[in-house]
From TrEMBL:
Enzyme type, top EC level: lyase
Entry similarity comment: Belongs to the HisA/HisF family.
Organism the protein comes from: Marininema mesophilum
InterPro entries membership: Aldolase_TIM, His_biosynth, HisF, IGPS_HisA/HisF, RibuloseP-bd_barrel
Lineage: Bacteria, Bacillati, Bacillota, Bacilli, Bacillales
Encoding gene per record: hisF
Subcellular location(s) per record: Cytoplasm
EC number(s) per entry: 4.3.2.10
NCBIfam families attached to this UniProt entry: hisF
UniProt subunit comment: Heterodimer of HisH and HisF.
Protein name as annotated: Imidazole glycerol phosphate synthase subunit HisF
GO molecular function, one term: imidazoleglycerol-phosphate synthase activity
Length: 252
């Protein structure tokens, strides 16, 4: 049986971890490597580093943070933000990342997914999708550039295309729920997990231990990601995993 993963996410801007609400009103949450090391020691299954301003500002991902993290962490970690071509992927993987996450660049040039998968393997390629519900169109649409630009892509269609091109995992963030702390977007998560055959990471909205129980019990998602509730110690990883086990969720 597949064991569910708990993944703290570290949104990095100017070398510091930040967190906001629905991608806005960012506040400082600490040093990325120090936080990641704490999560490693307290039972996280993986961590994700996302340079949230890299695509908007047109610069590359923080290689030095990756090198430092690789020297400290025992658990796998994924890095995203500002990846424009397979060479960027290579530099991050060589610096110590286990997986790379692409978002904006993959939408601008979907062949990037296929090129990365061919060179490094599907298991190294994560496609991050920032999704927002559009009431007038009765569907979820994909946003790029850190949630600043709406595309004409429907989320489920893009998830399926990304997997067909070689994505080995989908990191699915609900912009509507992000930072709200009132639960994961269950309908969105159900829609995407039922449409693809690769692991999906649910992201956006976690506020309580029960939110994790719900997303694992109500959807076949393989991992759940959160940020502020871990950064500000509102929930401990140890307590969360104990609760999940008590509720019959198989965790690592």
């Amino acid at each position: 049986m597949i064991r569910k993963r708990i993944i703290p996410c570290l949104d990095v801007k100017d070398g510091r971890v930040v967190k906001g609400v629905s991608f806005l009103n960012l506040r400082d949450a600490g040093d990325p490597v120090e936080l990641a090391t704490q999560y490693d020691q307290s039972g996280a299954d993986e961590v994700v580093f996302l340079d949230i301003s890299a695509s908007q500002e047109g610069r590359g991902t923080m290689i030095e943070v990756v090198r430092q993290a690789a020297g400290q962490l025992r658990i796998p970690f994924t890095v995203g933000g500002g990846i424009r071509d397979p060479e960027d992927m290579f530099q991050l993987l060589r610096a110590g990342a286990d997986k790379v996450s692409v978002n904006t660049a993959a939408i601008l040039d979907p062949s990037l997914i296929a090129a990365g998968a061919r060179r490094f393997g599907n298991q190294c390629i994560v496609v991050a999708i920032d999704a927002r519900w559009e009431e007038d169109e009765d569907d979820w649409f994909v946003y790029t550039h850190g949630g600043r630009k709406k595309t004409g892509l429907r989320v489920v269609d893009w998830a399926q295309e990304a997997v067909s091109l070689g994505a080995g995992e989908i990191l699915l963030t609900s912009m509507d729920q992000d930072g709200q702390k009132n639960g994961f977007d269950i309908p969105l998560t159900q829609a995407v997990t039922s449409a693809v055959r690769v692991p999906v990471i649910a992201s956006g909205g976690a506020g309580t231990e029960e939110d994790f129980v719900e997303v694992f019990q109500e959807t076949p998602v393989e991992a759940a990601l959160a940020a502020s509730i871990f950064h500000y110690r509102e929930i401990s990883l140890e307590d969360l995993k104990a609760t999940l086990r008590e509720e019959g969720v198989h965790v690592r």
